[in-house]
Amino acid sequence: MKPLVSIIVPHYQTAALASLCLRSIRRFTSGVAYEVIVVDNASKDGASLEYLRQVDWIRLIERTGEIPTGSEAHRTAVEMGFESARAPYILTIHTDTIPVRHDWLQFHLDPMLSDERLAAIGTDKLVLRSPIQNWLRLVEDTAMWWKRFRSVRTINKKPYIRSHCALYRRSVLDKHQIRYNDDPSLTAGQGVHRDLERLGYECRLLDPRDVIQRVVHLNHATELLLPELQAQCKKMHLWRGQHRIAQFFQRPETKEILADSTLDREMLSDRRVA
C-alpha cells in the first residue's frame, strides 16, 4: 500500500527518545497508510544508530561528516526528508513528540482531505499553562519590558505552525518550491507558514487543548538530555525539564511501550509502503 502521509523524524543521539517516539507511532497510528523517514544528524553515541538500523519499518537516512549544528541541522534534515518522501502529505515531528492516542494522525489529516486550500495544519507552542503560570509570565514580561523590542521577540510574537507536529500538503510545497531551510533567520516551520499565507493558502492553527490529548510534546528533550547541549540551558529550565521528562518515562504506559521490542519489526500483513 502506498503511503498517504510521510512522517519525517530528525534525530540526534537520543536512542531512548527515538525508541519511544517510533514505537508510539507504531502503536498509535491506525487508519492511515504512512511511511516514516528518520534522518540521523551524524549521531556518534553508537546506541542511536545501532537501534535505528534494526527498526525494519522505517527508512533511515544517515548523515555523515561535518554537518550544520543546532536549528540549521534540524532544518536541513527535514529538507532531506522532504526530498525522500513519497506521500502526498508530509508530517514533520520531533523525537520528543509522542503520540498517545490512535486518532492522532487522522485528526491532523481529515481537515486537509476536506479543504484543498488548506496547505498546512498544526499548533504553535504545544504547552498548556495554569493561570498561575500565565500570571508569572505576565509579571516577568512587565519587569523585563525591553525584551519586547528585540527583533527575534517581534518576529516570534505571531503564532505559527511549529515543526514538532506539522502536516503539509506536498503538492503546494512543490508547486511553489517551498522548503524549511529557505530562510535560515527564521525558526523551523516559520518561513513555510509565512510563505504559504503570502500565497493565499490557509495555515490552520489547531487548539493545543485538542492536540495535547493526542500527542505529548516533551519540549527541548534532546537539548535537556545531552550533556554537550545542556550548557546552553538555564539551571532552573534544565532541572524542571529533566524532571518532567523523567516523570513521563516513569509512566506505566511509557514503560510498556519501551519494553515492547516487537514494535520495531514490520509484519508481512502490515506493510505500509508498496
Condensed summary:
The chain is of the alpha/beta class and 274 residues long. It is built from 13 helices and 9 strands.
- What's the CATH first level? Alpha Beta
CATH architecture: Alpha-Beta Complex
What value does the average pLDDT take? 84
The amount of helix comes to 40-55%
Query: Helix/strand/pairing class, anyone?
Result: alpha/beta
What share of the residues does DSSP label as strand, in percent?
15-25%
Note the gap between the termini. 5 Å
Overall shape: it is globular
How many domains?
1
Determine the number of helices (DSSP H or I, runs of at least 4 residues). Answer: 13
Poorly predicted spans: none
Strand sequence of the main sheet, in spatial order? 3-2-1-4-7-6-8
Main sheet properties: 7 strands, mixed
The name of the CATH topology is Spore Coat Polysaccharide Biosynthesis Protein SpsA, Chain A
Written overview of the protein:
It is a single chain. The chain is of the alpha/beta class and 274 residues long. The chain has one domain (5-128, 159-270): Spore Coat Polysaccharide Biosynthesis Protein SpsA, Chain A. Helices cover 43% and strands 16% of the residues. It has 13 helices and nine strands. The chain has helices spanning 15-28, 47-53, 70-84, 104-114, 131-143, 151-156, 170-175, 190-198, 208-211, 221-225, 227-230, 235-249, 252-259; strands at residues 5-11, 34-40, 58-62, 89-93, 97-99, 118-122, 165-169, 202-205, 215-217. A seven-stranded mixed sheet has the order 3-2-1-4-7-6-8, sandwiched between helices. A two-stranded antiparallel sheet has the order 5-9. Helix 1 (15-28) runs parallel beside helix 2. The longest helix is centred in the first third of the chain and has 15 residues, at 70-84. The chain is globular. It starts with a strand and ends in a 15-residue tail after the last helix.
